[in-house]
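Consider the tokenized backbone below.
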């Protein structure tokens, strides 16, 4: 199901938005010197869009929450000195007024704000009649509808130059990522709104420096449009997100390593691709047929359990299935995460089938009423 939006290209005068666009700058604007020095160095390596947080929503209190409006003149100065476009995060009406007053060129809505429809609506209402590009980060929760909703609210208020930023999703369990990328969610957003530019924020996905290249490359291989990445003149001394920021020269190195693949499938390779896709379609047919057969057996098991008054969930059996298939999956080059998700989904579908059978009245399935022992 598509989403109807009136979008215009995310253009800024003088900026070529060929892939990849790069928006870079520190997590927070910490001082006039830090902003200016970082901006000058980034400008030297060809960056044209500068990011810096002025108001920093922090998960826990007592962390550095940004210098607020006091930092806006620093951005203005950096813009005058380097000609770069300035981007900052806005989370409420006051932020929008202040940012516009100080000539901020690009606004972004942070993950915690996208998750709050009232806040997004207030920002959208305040922006009515203003022609400014806005980047909407994904909400902290893996909820594509909430992300789309925020984009729609801004678009309905007349904002045409919109982009989506993928910054990963909150997770409870330990993982190598600070925020889990869950690539299928930005992919789904692109499917629903094909014309919206998608940029990835590897800094907030990784939470460290070591995976930044891999995540940025992944975004490029998914044909996303660019990255928004944190860069600080002296990362070790950063007042927020010190572990994930890159020096401008390390950012230059990262960008030089990015491999850009094109998305057009030219005729010489399209035949091979066509053939490969046919094979995929064939296998997908087989997968669906086998799943159908598997669920028919699940129905029979449901009948048996109903007749014999046995519970649907048999934890021991489920554990056996998962362990066995995980071992098999590993030998077949399938990740543990994939096999777990696949089997959880299959198991859930089997349970749903069996529940339906259990709840059918006896007249419907012709079974004898079973007495409780
Ligand atoms: C940020 O960009 O510095 C930031 C706070 O990001 P997010 O809203 O993605 O957490
Ligand atoms: Mn940050």
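A designed sequence for it:
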């Amino acid at each position: 199901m598509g989403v109807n939006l009136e979008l215009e290209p995310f253009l800024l005068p003088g900026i070529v938005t060929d892939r990849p666009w790069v928006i870079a700058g520190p997590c927070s604007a910490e001082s006039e010197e830090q902003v200016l020095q970082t901006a000058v160095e980034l400008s030297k390596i060809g960056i044209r869009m500068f990011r810096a947080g002025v108001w920093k929503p922090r998960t826990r209190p007592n962390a550095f929450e940004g210098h607020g409006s006091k930092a806006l003149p620093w951005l203005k100065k950096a813009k005058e000195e380097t000609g770069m476009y300035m981007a900052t995060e806005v989370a409420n009406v006051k932020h929008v007024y202040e940012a516009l007053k100080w000539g901020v060129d690009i606004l972004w809505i942070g993950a915690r704000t996208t998750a709050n429809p009232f806040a997004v609506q207030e920002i959208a209402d305040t922006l009515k009649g203003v022609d400014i590009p806005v980047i909407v980060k994904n909400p902290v929760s893996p909820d594509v509808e909430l992300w789309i909703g925020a984009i729609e609210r801004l678009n309905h208020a007349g904002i045409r130059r919109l982009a989506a930023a993928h910054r990963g999703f909150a997770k409870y369990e330990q993982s190598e990522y600070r925020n889990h990328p869950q690539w299928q969610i930005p992919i789904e957003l692109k499917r629903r709104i094909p014309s919206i530019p998608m940029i990835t924020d590897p800094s907030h996905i990784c939470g460290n420096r070591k995976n930044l290249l891999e995540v940025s490359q992944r975004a490029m291989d998914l044909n996303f449009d660019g990255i928004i990445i944190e860069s600080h003149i002296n990362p070790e001394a950063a007042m927020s997100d010190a572990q994930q920021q890159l020096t401008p020269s390390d950012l230059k190195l990262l960008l030089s390593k990015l491999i850009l693949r094109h998305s057009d499938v030219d005729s010489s390779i399209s035949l091979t691709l066509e053939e490969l896709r046919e094979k995929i379609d064939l296998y997908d047919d087989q997968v669906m047929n086998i799943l159908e057969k598997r669920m028919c057996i699940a129905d029979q098991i449901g009948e048996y359990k109903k007749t014999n008054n046995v519970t649907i969930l048999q934890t021991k059996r489920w554990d056996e299935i998962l362990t066995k298939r995980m071992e098999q999956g590993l030998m077949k080059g399938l990740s543990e995460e994939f096999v777990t998700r696949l089997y959880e989904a299959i198991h859930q579908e089997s349970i749903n089938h069996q529940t339906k059978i259990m709840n059918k009245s006896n007249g419907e399935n012709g079974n004898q009423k079973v007495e409780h022992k």
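Residues 365-373 have pLDDT under 50 and may be disordered.
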